[in-house]
Amino acid sequence: MGDVMKVAFIGLGNMGLPMAINLVRAGEQVYGYDLSPAALRELALAGGIPCDSARQAVDGAEAVISMLPASRHVHSLYCHPDGVLNFVARGSILIDCSTISPATSRQASKIAEECGLDMIDAPVSGGTQSAQAGTLTFMIGSTIEQLARAQPLLEKMGKRVVHAGSSGAGQTAKLCNNMLLGILMLANSEAIQLGIANGLDPKTLCDITNNSSGANCALKTNNPCPGVDPMAASSRDYTGGFAVDLMLKDLGLAIETSLQSGTSAALGSLARNLFALHSAAGNGERDFGSVFDLYGRRLA
Ligand code: NAD
């Protein structure tokens, strides 16, 4: 790999765009593709090179990074017989940062291997604020050698890179984490609404809780109550964060994984059902902190 790398970046959404911009800032040549023309314009404004197709973006790239919504998008990018793998230069490294099913990750990695390419799963934790600040945590499913190849690039977008195990293991770690995050967001909402309904100022309550035994990362960096944290998505009408439908997808993947392993995910199942109801009520695209509204109505 030379000093300046040609990197293809597929999927420039809430997470992918700031990650791609951090690579541009670190001096890499970033060729981006997204279905959204607005996202391509943003990339161009930041100094990246917008492309008309994924195929054009990967042409001559030394690394391909994808940050797509769900398994089916990653499957169609890498596993389709006419997909981009036919056009990626041999010796390139493929890094999928999307949160998808471990089985799809393993399948894509196997197909890549058959094409003589290294592919790793590298889902992230940290949300849009960390994506912008370049402080994401990457959870890696790969061989040690594959990780060593990807590490310099990952360090330009994140502050921690953790090897979880072989192909698919990064996804399994991510699903465990997000099941916990979904449960915590509901629990935080429930507790704050209880305080408000009983006369507490939510800022004061969260200040107390953040310094007490109920403290948790979701409360510190994703506070669901509007106005408590000006940086949280809740303070901009639940826009530009982690969508309810993405959390619903991750909880579904966690439940699927629990069924496959014969384990219980009692709270995870409850959380999935509550997020499903919230999504069905028209909140699918809002930040997942908007489940705060589920508890807003006084029942008695
Ligand atoms: P997003 O919906 O904002 O972005 C996805 C982007 O992919 C969109 O811009 C969309 O136009 C694009 N896209 C869809 N299909 C495409 C295709 N075929 N070719 C090119 N582009 C395509 O989602 P996001 O919030 O950026 O999340 C991306 C992934 O990261 C998801 O798997 C999500 O679960 C995970 N994730 C999100 C967060 C978060 O806080 N938002 C945090 C950690 C992980």
Give your account of this protein's structure.
Helix 1 links the parallel strand 1 and strand 2. The longest helix has 29 residues. The strands form two sheets. Strands 3-2-1-4-5-6 form a six-stranded parallel beta sheet. Strands 7-8-9 form a three-stranded mixed beta sheet. The model has no long low-confidence stretch (mean pLDDT 96). It is an alpha/beta fold and 300 residues long. Helix 4 packs parallel to helix 5 and helix 8 crosses helix 12. 47% of the residues lie in helices and 13% in strands. It is built from twelve helices and nine strands. The termini are far apart. Bound molecules: nicotinamide-adenine-dinucleotide (NAD). Nicotinamide-adenine-dinucleotide binds next to helix 6 and helix 11.
In angstroms, what is the radius of gyration? Answer: 20 Å
- Strand runs, count: 9
Series of secondary-structure elements, N-terminal to C-terminal: EHEHEHEHEHEEHEHEHHHHH
Q: How would a textbook summarize the main sheet?
A: 6 strands, parallel
Helix content: 40-55%
Low-pLDDT segments: none
How widely separated are the two ends?
Answer: 65 Å
* Large-scale geometry: globular
Quickly give the structural class. alpha/beta
Which strand-content bin applies to the residues?
5-15%
Offer a quick outline of the entry:
The chain is of the alpha/beta class and 300 residues long. The protein has 12 helices and 9 strands.
Q: Helices and strands in order, then pairings?
A:
Layout: E1 6-10, H1 16-25, E2 29-33, H2 37-45, E3 49-50, H3 54-58, E4 63-66, H4 71-78, E5 93-96, H5 102-114, E6 118-121, E7 124-125, H6 127-133, E8 136-141, H7 144-154, E9 158-165, H8 169-197, H9 202-210, H10 217-221, H11 244-261, H12 266-283
Helix pairs in contact: 1-6, 4-5, 8-11, 8-12, 11-12
The chain binds nicotinamide-adenine-dinucleotide (NAD).
